[in-house]
């Protein structure tokens, strides 16, 4: 913990930032902000939607929810901060990455962590103090990932999580539209600084994103709102269980298996399966209209194939 705090304080000093953890931790929660963060946004988040549902006056409440271990939809909190935040959000996002407050195997928590470096990219595009420098430090060749390594250290597989977070930090650079970001992306995309094949691929994709955005907007400018294409179209599905529930499960091992399934191993397999499904976008995801006129996305996960794949039988 001391090492993590020292890193955050050192980075803050380097960037000339003032950290104010106490006010963030005690900010009153506006019920309207909390309710907005608990919804499911099927079509994603935009500047206009974030402004309409929360607005900049809700940023202190968002930062409090970001640090609250019991809040269940931290991914929405980070999404709102990406579209609303400024200087005040940078320290909160870095503190969140340094010490994730909840179980990283929860899909919502995983999404929040993966979104945080991208959120810093959005903040950097608006000139937020420290956001660009933080992303450059995360992706510095030979730097070990900086605060991303601190986040990954809380996971069951630090190397894999660090690799995933590094790719999202590269995307954050692509979103920033800062000249220094393009230099870093070009360096990694061209195989410099001993970048790995996955880092090169991620850097190339982020470089293409950077060039697409930079073609129409200058560094520090507000993105242009996308055109209004009318209300979204929703797909109904026959699935009658749009929410996740605990379900009894039994399994058996084949007598010839050299490495039979165990309860602990099965728990790990199902947790990893839920995580991977929670990260994945599907072409025909189920959307469920609710009585109040909003919509909910199915979180159903398939586990039967995973159990068979790892030697078990339901």
Gyration radius from CA atoms, angstroms: 21 Å
Query: How much beta, percentage-wise?
Result: under 5%
Ends apart, CA distance between termini: 42 Å
What is the assembly state of the chains in this entry? Answer: single chain
Overall residue-averaged pLDDT value? 77
CATH class of the largest domain: Mainly Alpha
Task: Compute the number of structural domains.
Answer: 2
Alpha plus pi helix count = 15
As laid out across the biggest beta sheet, the strand order is 1-4
Which class do the helix and strand fractions yield? mainly alpha
Helix amount, in percent? 40-55%
**Largest sheet, described in full?**
2 strands, antiparallel
Described by the principal axes of the CA atoms, the overall outline is globular
**SSE order:** HHHHHHHHHHHHHEHEEHE
The CATH topology of the largest domain comes to Leucine-rich Repeat Variant
Kindly state the number of beta strands.
Answer: 4
Which stretches are low in confidence, meaning pLDDT under 50 for 5 or more residues running? 1-26, 222-229, 231-242, 282-290, 293-314
CATH architecture term of the largest domain: Alpha Horseshoe
Commentary on this structure:
- The protein is mainly alpha-helical.
- It has 15 helices and four strands.
- Helix 5 runs antiparallel to helix 6, helix 8 packs across helix 9 and helix 12 runs antiparallel to helix 13.
Topology:
Layout: H1 2-15, H2 21-26, H3 31-37, H4 47-53, H5 59-66, H6 74-84, H7 87-98, H8 107-125, H9 131-138, H10 147-152, H11 158-176, H12 179-189, H13 197-214, E1 252-253, H14 263-279, E2 287-289, E3 295-297, H15 304-309, E4 312-313
Helix pairs in contact: 1-7, 5-6, 6-8, 7-8, 8-9, 8-11, 8-14, 9-11, 11-12, 11-13, 12-13
């Amino acid at each position: 913990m001391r090492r993590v705090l020292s890193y955050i304080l050192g980075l803050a000093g380097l960037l000339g930032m003032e950290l104010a953890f106490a006010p963030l931790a005690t900010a009153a929660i506006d019920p309207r902000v909390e309710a907005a963060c608990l919804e499911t946004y099927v079509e994603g988040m935009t500047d206009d939607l974030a402004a309409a549902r929360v607005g900049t006056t809700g940023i202190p409440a968002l930062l409090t929810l970001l640090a609250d271990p019991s809040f269940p939809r931290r991914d929405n909190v980070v999404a709102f901060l990406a579209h609303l935040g400024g200087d005040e959000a940078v320290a909160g996002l870095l503190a969140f990455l340094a010490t994730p407050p909840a179980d990283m195997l929860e899909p919502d928590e995983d999404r929040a962590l993966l979104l945080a470096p991208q959120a810093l990219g959005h903040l950097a595009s608006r000139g937020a103090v420290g956001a660009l420098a933080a992303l450059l430090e995360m992706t510095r060749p030979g730097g070990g990932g900086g605060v991303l390594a601190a986040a990954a250290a809380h996971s069951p597989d630090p190397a894999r999580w660090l690799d995933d977070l590094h790719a999202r930090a590269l995307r954050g650079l692509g979103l920033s539209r800062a000249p220094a970001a393009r230099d870093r992306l070009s360096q990694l995309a061209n195989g410099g600084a001993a970048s790995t094949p996955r880092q090169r691929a991620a850097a190339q994709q982020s470089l293409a994103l950077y060039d697409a955005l930079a073609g129409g907007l200058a560094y520090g400018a507000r993105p242009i709102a996308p055109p209004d294409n009318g209300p979204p179209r929703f797909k109904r599905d026959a699935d009658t269980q749009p929410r996740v529930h605990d379900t009894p499960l039994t399994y058996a091992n084949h007598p010839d298996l050299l490495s039979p399934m165990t309860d602990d191993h099965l728990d790990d397999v199902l947790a990893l399966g839920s995580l991977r499904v929670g990260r994945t976008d599907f072409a025909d995801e189920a959307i469920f209209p609710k009585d109040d006129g909003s919509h909910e996305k199915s979180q159903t996960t398939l586990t039967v194939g995973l159990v068979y794949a790892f030697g078990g039988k339901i």
